[in-house]
Amino acid sequence: MDWHKCAQSFIHIVEDQSFAKAARRLYSSSSALSKHISWLEEQLGVQLLRRTTRRLSLTAEGECFYQRAKQLLDDWADLKESIRNTYNQPVGILSIGISVVFGSLYIVPLLPELLEKFSRLKINVKTLNYPLLSNIDTLDLYFSHKSPDFFSDAMDHRMIAHTHLQIFAAPSYLAKHGTPITLADLQDHNCLLSMGHEHPNKWEFAGAAPITVQGNLIADNNSIAVKAATAGLGLLFTSPLALSPEQKKHLVPVLPNYHSPRWTIYAYYPKLKTLPLKTQAFLSYIEKKLEDTLPISE
């Protein structure tokens, strides 16, 4: 057995309050983690955890071991990153979370040049359109328009870009159903709904009251809604950044003087004393490449 690995298992079990959750995070099994705890308790000669069918709790010895072990592992991780930063060469696997649309349009096209520049870096990409705290806490970096209030205090962030949502439609739809003249007219149209919005059937506009809309399509992926709009199915409420150059050829703005309140796109990452060099390098590269495409200015 390995002290580092077993201590890491113990820390995750305590923080997740579950062997199963900790096992998923560590890509292991509950039985393997149980053996790690048994080995630690045997080596230390004390009981660390009280386990019942309903909950886990720490013994006094377990609380002491948790605090000291967590500090030691954090210091060890900090030491490794400090050494890597000294030699200025990002290495290892970087796990990033992106939405299908934002990732395919703005992140993935930059990867070939980035990975050629940082040849010892590998990228693990996960598409997460609707993030849960449980599926982002293993990521090194996550791009989202979610407010920082959504995330825990353990996450830090920086702004990547600002955007707004606007209404678009295919000319074929407007020719058949007419063009809305006022926001109230939206209630008489087929509006394509996306689960990417907090309230899919409530479209919010800056300086105006929200409009409750309805439609015959609800998509759990904005790409589906965009394709439906280009096919002439209905009105689409999305960011211009979510449209490829080809898709923009098949859609026209509707009520162009109205748009949503500002959406900010953030990059989120774990709050650490020393941000890993691989994260620093990736984020700096992406920011530099996107600064003209995705402006941060008001």
Automatic annotation (TrEMBL):
Record GO biological process: DNA-templated transcription
The keyword Transcription belongs to this UniProt entry's keyword annotation: yes
Gene3D superfamilies in alphabetical order: 3.40.190.290, Winged helix-like DNA-binding domain superfamily/Winged helix DNA-binding domain
Protein name from the UniProt record: LysR family transcriptional regulator
SUPFAM superfamilies for this protein: Periplasmic binding protein-like II, Winged helix' DNA-binding domain
A GO term, aspect molecular function: DNA-binding transcription factor activity
PROSITE patterns: HTH_LYSR (PS50931)
Entry-linked InterPro entries: LysR-type_TF_proteobact-type (IPR058163), LysR_HTH_N (IPR000847), LysR_subst-bd (IPR005119), WH-like_DNA-bd_sf (IPR036388), WH_DNA-bd_sf (IPR036390)
Annotated family: Belongs to the LysR transcriptional regulatory family.
Record key words, sorted: DNA-binding, Transcription, Transcription regulation
